[in-house]
Amino acid sequence: MNISVSSVSQKYGSHVVLKDVSFESKSGEVIALLGPNGSGKSTLIKTIADILTPSSGLITIDGVDVQKIDRIDRAKMIGYVPQYFHYTPFTTVLDTVLIGRRPYMSWSVSDDDLSAVDEAMTTMNIADLSDRFVNELSGGQRQRVFIARALAQDPNFFLFDEPTSSLDLRHQLETVATMREIVRRENSGMIIALHDLNLALRYTDKVLLLKDGEMYDYGTPEDVLTTESVRDVYGVDAEFVENAKGKFILSYAPS
Length: 255
Hints:
alpha/beta; Rossmann fold; six-stranded mixed β-sheet; globular; ATP hydrolysis activity
């Protein structure tokens, strides 16, 4: 499955948030959206998910305008995890993850639905929380619950808006590594908004770097993330170090 973003702009009232953004995301790829706060990452994710309508431009899935795809069919194609979660208090983790199966359910829950939910909870290491209420969990645990809900949805494509923001260091690494493995294994696709440049450098195939709502650069992490681009976009100095574990970015306050 391919998602194509063609000359997309977005604004809130008269304030332009995105301007003329174009790129393509293909099955088997993980694409990171990078940029400082206010650069348009979340707005772009919501626009691709058809939560927001572009002020101009076009978003297609396999050549079909996303706005013309039936809502239930689109839910089977795209799993969306927002930056901020809305949930009903005193709903169990199991029931919350089961909501991800809603596009497939008719009058009752099938064995396939329960199997998908069980697999998603196991993948996100929350099976032991299945009977807990979501409002009793920590922020990081809740974040893993909603990622599991997207996994249970079994979509062709994942749209994740800063899914690691509430996770501790270990779970950040595990979550992004797990999602990359799923994308590779299932030949699905993923667009993920991140703040951590090292996660993008290590686990993604392409990087779209945004500055003030415009595309600063797009390409492989190694090509896009340089000392010059980090300085221009984030306003900090950076250097790259390499060891047996890979290549990493160290950032510093500007001298």
